[in-house]
Amino acid sequence: MWNRQQVKEQAKQIMKRNYWKMFLVTLIAGILSTYYVTVIQEVQGLVPDVVLPSMFSSIHSFLSMESIVGLLFSIFIGFAIRVGEQYYFIKNHYGNPALNEIFQGFKGNYLNVVKIMLIMELKIMLWLLLLVVPGIIKAYEYSMIPCLLAENPNITTDEAFSLSKQMTTGQKMDLFVLDLSFLGWYFLGFL
Predict the structure, then answer these.
(1) What's the whole-model pTM score?
(2) Is residue 141 a contact partner of residue 166, using CB atoms and an 8 Å limit?
């Protein structure tokens, strides 16, 4: 059994070892694993209409070119980066891994990693469409999937979801409270 104070204290000890490297990994993963729709829209605004036809610059719907490129980037690059980030932090728990460990999601069974992460995101989205609270509960239930993929990129989809469910059974509220305890840090990071 774990409690929030123990987890935070252990994290502080690990962070003392190589804080700046961990910060850099988090920054790189944050940049590479997010949706790039707004970045692509900004770049598109800088490119003259001669290069990008005006029909693309006037489309601002879900199926716009920016959205499609951003979504594909998130699926094929972002998911692997998120798994690589988890791999880095798992290894960081026991030692001082190299910075390039963040790209571990591209090694091994890359397509399996992308497939399972995509299914996970789709399931969470569908649960969120049903109702917000069940979506949040399912997001916590599936939260261990990136860690499981980091440790074993060859795991099957059913095994990943089953193991994540087992790992979070009885722990979802504790994970939620742990996230809430970082609310102040999230706010400072946003500023």
Answers:
(1) 0.80
(2) no
Buried b or exposed e, range 8-31, using 16+ CB within 10 angstroms: eeeeeeeeeeeeeebeebeebbee
What values do phi and psi take at 109, rounded to 5? Answer: -95, 75
Question: At a CB cut-off of 8 Å and minimum separation 6, what does 82 contact?
Answer: 29, 33, 105, 117, 146
CA distance 136 to 38: 25
Calculate the alpha carbon distances from 82 to 6, 68, 77, 158 in Å.
Answer: 25, 20, 9, 20
Q: Residue 186 has which token pair?
A: 């999230």
Q: Each residue of 132-177: pLDDT tens digit? A: 888 999 999 999 999 999 999 999 999 999 999 999 999 999 999 9
Buried b (16+ CB within 10 A) or exposed e, 150-172: beebebeeeebbebbeeebeebb
